[in-house]
# Entry
Amino acid sequence: MAIVEFTIIPIGTATTSLSQYVADIQKVLEQAEEPVHYEMTAMSTMIEGELDDLMTIIRRLHEVPFQHGAQRVSTSIKIDDRRDQQASIQQKLRSVQDKMNL
# Structure
């Protein structure tokens, strides 16, 4: 299972506020047919699942700002693809918390 963190930024919009674009992207993510878990943060969104599914979803999400009038979109993607054992967002957080409680 892979974990992908992404940020999608429409460029050249009429306002500095991006929350409507983020909301539109989250709606599309909620309706994804692919079996993924996701978490939105204040600065990005993280999704976990099979890498092929995640890349398909990100491609679809990248299109959302264009569908809402943006003429240019910048998407940043960070991939953590661990193959020696199962990893998840929660597992990674637990691992750090366990080490903090030593």
Remarks:
- The mean pLDDT is 92.
